[in-house]
């Protein structure tokens, strides 16, 4: 099967499966809404503290919501021996990985875009001038999380305690993404000049490139193991 056709097939399969069950998106949205409500009530009496911490709050919500979606990325393949079919499929394993990354990225970014207006509403944020750069930050950070998370989701899918092992393995590697995303988001929301936080965006780009390439090459060995 051609490389790019395989990517489209995997993305389409995951999107159709999610459309039929709505299991991943609904669980991600429900968890994220709880996080937003908890933080909004916690800082309801101290708006100054909330504005100082809002970038970290946003990415705590986005990261842990994304882990829920990543955890379901390959567990759905356990049904009806779908995982074995992927292992025996003559399609390039790297294309399967990129298809899974693309699907996870779409799920995570869609949830982030749906949730961000709630942050604006609950925390009274002024984001009109920063929308463009925030979308770029969301795109780059989500891509990095999806690239690494998809690899570890495949690695832990056949482990009995996969719900625990996935965040344990993923979060240490995701720390650079979270730090860079928080700092870049803080700078954008504060209205700082782009040069003040551009190095964090550069870090996100470098992380995305390195870990996507490394995960691409490792995925075949993990899937066949």
Task: Please characterize this protein's 3D structure.
The radius of gyration is 18 Å and the shape is globular. It has 225 residues and is mainly α. The protein has 8 helices and no strands.
Pick out its properties.
mainly alpha; 8 helices
What's the short story on this structure?
The protein is mainly α and 225 residues long.
Secondary structure elements and pairings:
Layout: H1 3-21, H2 23-42, H3 47-75, H4 82-88, H5 93-123, H6 131-156, H7 162-190, H8 194-224
Helix pairs in contact: 1-5, 2-3, 2-5, 3-5, 3-6, 3-7, 5-6, 5-8, 6-7, 6-8, 7-8
Decide which structural class fits the backbone: mainly alpha
* Tally of individual helices: 8
Helical fraction equals over 70%
State Rg. Answer: 18 Å
Query: Which consecutive residue ranges, at least 5 long each, have pLDDT under 50?
Result: none
Largest sheet: none
């Amino acid at each position: 099967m051609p490389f790019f056709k395989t990517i489209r097939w995997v993305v389409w399969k995951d999107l159709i499966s999610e459309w039929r069950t709505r299991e991943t998106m609904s669980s991600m949205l429900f968890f994220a809404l709880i996080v937003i409500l908890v933080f909004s009530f916690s800082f309801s009496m101290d708006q100054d503290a909330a504005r100082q911490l809002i970038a970290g709050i946003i990415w705590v919500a986005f990261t842990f919501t994304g882990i829920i979606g990543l955890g379901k990325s390959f567990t759905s393949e356990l049904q009806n021996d779908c995982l074995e079919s992927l292992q025996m499929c003559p399609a390039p394993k790297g294309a399967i990985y990129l298809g899974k990354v693309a699907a996870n990225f779409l799920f995570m970014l869609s949830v982030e875009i749906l949730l961000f207006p709630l942050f604006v509403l609950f925390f009274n944020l002024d984001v009109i001038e920063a929308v463009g750069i925030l979308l770029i930050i969301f795109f780059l950070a989500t891509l990095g999380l999806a690239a690494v998370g998809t690899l570890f989701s495949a690695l832990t899918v056949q482990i009995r305690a996969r719900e625990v092992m996935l965040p344990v393995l993923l979060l240490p590697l995701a720390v650079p993404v979270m730090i860079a995303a928080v700092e870049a988001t803080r700078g954008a929301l504060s209205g700082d000049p782009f040069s003040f936080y551009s190095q964090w965006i550069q870090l996100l780009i470098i992380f995305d490139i390195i870990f996507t390439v490394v995960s691409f090459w490792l995925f075949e060995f993990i899937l066949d193991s």
